[in-house]
Structure formats: structure tokens, C-alpha cells
Amino acid sequence: VQLQASGGGLVQTGGSLRLSCVASGSTWRINTVNWYRQPPGKQRELVAAITGAGSTNYADSVKGRFTISRDSAKNTVYLQMNSLKPEDTAAYYCNAEGYRALDAWGQGTLITISS
After folding, report:
1. Which of 5, 12, 41, 104 has its Cβ near the most Cβ atoms within 10 Å?
2. Do 48 and 56 contact (CB within 8 A), yes or no?
3. Is the Cβ–Cβ distance between 35 and 97 less than 8 Å?
4. Cβ partners under 8 Å of residue 99, min gap 6
5. What is the DSSP string of 39-95?
6. What is the pLDDT of residues 19-41, one digit of tens each?
7. Quick one: which of 81, 37, 45 has its CA closest to 63?
8. What's the pLDDT tens digit per position in 34-67?
9. How far is it, in rounded angstroms, from Cα 30 to Cα 44?
10. E strand or H helix at 33
11. Do the strands 9-12 and 109-114 form a parallel or antiparallel pair, or are they unpaired?
């Protein structure tokens, strides 16, 4: 499974961005897709997750502002980010987990929120 993340950029505080994570290869192995982020100088943290059944989970810091969704027909998972804050500045990574110990990572996409 290969993951391609896109959608990062520079936005002002209060702005919005949508990240996309497109999967290719043996996508049937994917169950859960996660978005992680790693702020400068800090550890990577889980931001949001969505299972194959559509269940979602969010970090407390993004609840009510971020929405994760998936379009199975396009093998794509989205992360809609609204009301962005400077503390959301980070490299964002998508990750897929699933059958046969799948643990695939996409390349990071950088988001910078200016105050």
C-alpha cells in the first residue's frame, strides 16, 4: 500500500485547509486511516482516525474544528481543518493500518498557520 498526502500550505489564523490522502496498491488491506502531525521540535501525535466502518476519533485539541472522512470509491481520506490556530502548525502524515499487519505511511505535508 502506498499513501500520497497533499493539501498543505500557509494559511492565516482562522483559515481552513483540506488534506487528502490517496491510497494505491493493495487497498483492500486498509481498515483504519489515521492522520498524525508533528509540530516543530515535538513528538508526532495522533490527530484523527477513521475506521472502515466509518467510526471516527479525534484528539481533544482538534475536536469541533477538524473532520476526517473517506471516499472509498476514490481510495481517499480527507482531513478538513477549520478555525486553524498557530499551534496547528506541523507536518501532517497519513497512516494506514489493517490486514496482514499493514502499517503504511505517506510523506508529510507541511501546514503553517500564521498569526
Report:
1. 5
2. yes
3. no
4. 28, 29, 31
5. -TTS--EEEEEE-TT--EEE-TTTTTTEEEEEEGGGTEEEEEE-S--GGG-EEEEEE
6. 999 999 999 999 999 999 999 99
7. 81
8. 999 999 999 999 999 999 999 999 999 999 999 9
9. 21
10. strand 30-38
11. parallel
